[in-house]
Amino acid sequence: MRIVVLAGGIGGARFLRGLKLAAPDADITVIGNTGDDIHLFGLKVCPDLDTVMYTLGGGINEEQGWGRTDETFKVKEELAVYGVGPEWFGLGDRDFATHIVRTQMLAAGFPLSAVTEALCERWQPGVRLLPMSDDRVETHVAVDVDGERKAVHFQEYWVRLRASVDAQAVVPVGAEQAKPAPGVLEAIAEADVILFPPSNPVVSVGTILAVPGIREAIAEAGVPVVGLSPIVGDAPVRGMADKVLAAVGVESTAAAVAEHYGSGLLDGWLVDTVDKGVVERIEAAGIRCRAVPLMMTDPEVGTAAAEMARVALALAEEVRGA
Amino acid sequence: MRIVVLAGGIGGARFLRGLKLAAPDADITVIGNTGDDIHLFGLKVCPDLDTVMYTLGGGINEEQGWGRTDETFKVKEELAVYGVGPEWFGLGDRDFATHIVRTQMLAAGFPLSAVTEALCERWQPGVRLLPMSDDRVETHVAVDVDGERKAVHFQEYWVRLRASVDAQAVVPVGAEQAKPAPGVLEAIAEADVILFPPSNPVVSVGTILAVPGIREAIAEAGVPVVGLSPIVGDAPVRGMADKVLAAVGVESTAAAVAEHYGSGLLDGWLVDTVDKGVVERIEAAGIRCRAVPLMMTDPEVGTAAAEMARVALALAEEVRGA
């Protein structure tokens, strides 16, 4: 079975760990969001790709969900003494090595997809990890500060400002001109199932869908497309989905997110058991829906996520059989 | 008193520490060798400039003479796991930060001299540290390996090969086209004394002198030029001066090095007490010479170097008064 997953960072990575347990023989291609990518200290940092790579490769800091385990911060400390920032982005020494390798390869002319493949040679994530595009796409968030509107990089909105101010608009700068990375459209065309993990529907999955050709390819793939709600009980499980959903005029509810994707794209949708009241509304919108536990905070790594993946795949089969 | 010093790495840096003790009120400009510079992992590394900066700024690893104190090597470890080398160059985590800042500033368009000034803002070395040139100069060493001649970067010759093979030739690639960095010729023209510390006469001081205009400016400055022999008892105090001197056809002796610089450039020369037998020969070549202790391996940091600097400055005054 060939499965394509559109993934952001932590939510996508944890779901993928469960999916690998649930479907150990599946051929999984991950299309990773690169709209969160940022240049820091002259280095190219790809937070979502790295979170997937580190999580599936066994190098992730489990507690925080991003960055490397057994990490130290000497480089960052020194940069701060030089007065070179930003200080609000937590790059560890081990993590720096990844960005140094990536930047060096990009400077040598390799596209991001080839660089990602090379990095995965080490991590052996057990999935094929593709960036959504080799072209630069950078999600910016419009915010009002002291009565003035300004655009900040998504990482600045999320990490520095901690999404403490409202997002007035979310713009994936460069997306319109971007082309899907090599292999992306082919993977979608050859997929048996396409999954949207509980990643941010605006700045993660939404950014991937904003690359011309990807949304269309999914809609026309003719295979079940099943998503999992990142909103549980009217609040994001983690992150700032509520803020960026508001910016695009979508309620922060499991039902509204399903309707935002729409029945033209989505065939099935999983909501958490606390949201079981909205199953009918979603089904009325033409999307098959089930209410199951969607929290991935189990002590045994991947167990809850694996069960979620099993239910998602079962729902996909149900869609296929209908 | 305005003093100009042409410095390489460890020997130059340690002498400078002594000079600052010997002449605390002097206005010292250091013209640093950049022929050892190398690009590693996509980052610009300037070993000699950094050794001077770290030594005078209190951040040097005293035992090894280069690199940072209290250093860790996580980034390098990770790069090795990625299979990215070279592994033979010991870049520590704290040191990486310097190269990251430098590379980022260079990429932003600042010349090396401005970058060095910015880095020194932090280190406050108590001297004005100028790279010999903002242009790229890279010292290559021709070696015969398995019967074939090939050119290797100086760092590869010294750090990887540990100078275990003979140097057939030493070429400061790019030197002929290089221009002295802003301030270099001005500092020489305004100097009261010019000193050559016990740095390598070929790959350190020699490379600086290979930048068109610098040798001429020193010869024409009309002020005492005094050097200290890096060769003690027919062997270099440290490093591979013997190997690179052989490549340029110069004997590895205190006298031969003085004659290599020549009386057209050099007015005074200090040799170690073990070499007092050559004083007459050097004076016969038109260079005032004194034999004094030249080992800088004293337990009290800088004390021996300070005494060497005092004697060098005294010899300069003797030259001036002659």
TrEMBL record, chains A, B:
EC numbers, comma separated: 2.7.8.28
Cofactor: Mg(2+)
Classification via SUPFAM superfamilies: CofD-like (SSF142338)
Presence of the UniProt keyword Cell cycle in the record: no
Pathway: Cofactor biosynthesis; coenzyme F420 biosynthesis
InterPro entries reported for this sequence: CofD, CofD-like_dom_sf, FbiA/CofD
CDD domains: CofD_like
Protein name as annotated: Phosphoenolpyruvate transferase
Catalysed reactions listed for this entry: enolpyruvoyl-2-diphospho-5'-guanosine + 7,8-didemethyl-8-hydroxy-5-deazariboflavin = dehydro coenzyme F420-0 + GMP + H(+)
Function: Catalyzes the transfer of the phosphoenolpyruvate moiety from enoylpyruvoyl-2-diphospho-5'-guanosine (EPPG) to 7,8-didemethyl-8-hydroxy-5-deazariboflavin (FO) with the formation of dehydro coenzyme F420-0 and GMP.
Originating organism: Streptomyces tabacisoli
